[in-house]
Specification:
The chain is mostly helical and about 170 residues long. The chain has two domains: about 35 residues; about 100 residues. Helices cover about 60% and strands about 0% of the residues.
């Protein structure tokens, strides 16, 4: 029967035949640790960079490739249901559109043209929540009298007034 006991130089008995090999020098150990730390920092750095890129991209305000800001500037027409519907469909396919003020203005305008007070007001309320001083509305909205958020709210309130008048008039019949 084979004896699995090993006696190390200090006279201690060990049952292991193969022991962990220590690095040949302290420099090799330090280099290994530094290399592992660099890899960890790179992975964490890329994860943070990716997270920031995917969460900070604003599809209707950004000049980056893939942004629909140009489409909005070219096709926004508050009097055209077809154009607003097409823009709204494009916007809803984008990431983070609910965090972009310009996207929410277009979506709200689309609901205004469809006389849908509840949806238009819902988009406006979300717009109010993300409102910061750091964004500016697309200049194309100025052509349609939307210079600031209160102008959009006035249009939404007008829809509500129209819907209430229609309900009141239907009661008389």
């Amino acid at each position: 029967m084979e004896n699995n006991l090993n006696i190390n130089p200090k006279g201690q008995i060990s049952k292991l035949k193969h022991r962990y090999k220590k690095p040949k020098s302290k420099k090799a150990l330090i280099a290994s640790i530094v290399f592992i730390l660099i890899i960890i920092f790179l992975i964490v750095g890329f994860a943070i960079y990716y997270f920031l890129q995917t969460t900070s991209y604003m599809p209707c305000s950004s000049d980056k490739k893939g942004s629909i800001k140009e489409s909005i500037s070219k096709d926004f027409d508050i009097n055209s249901q077809e154009k607003l519907k097409s823009l709204s469909q494009q916007i809803k396919k984008q990431n983070n559109y609910m965090k972009d003020a310009n996207c929410l203005v277009v979506l709200s305008a689309n609901e205004i043209t469809n006389n849908n007070y509840d949806s238009a007001n819902n988009y406006y309320e979300k717009l109010q929540k993300i409102k910061t001083n750091s964004y500016s509305l697309n200049q194309v909205f100025e052509q349609y009298g939307i210079l600031k958020l209160s102008d959009l709210k006035n249009r939404i309130d007008f829809i509500k007034l129209q819907q209430e008048n229609i309900k009141n008039n239907l009661r008389f019949f």
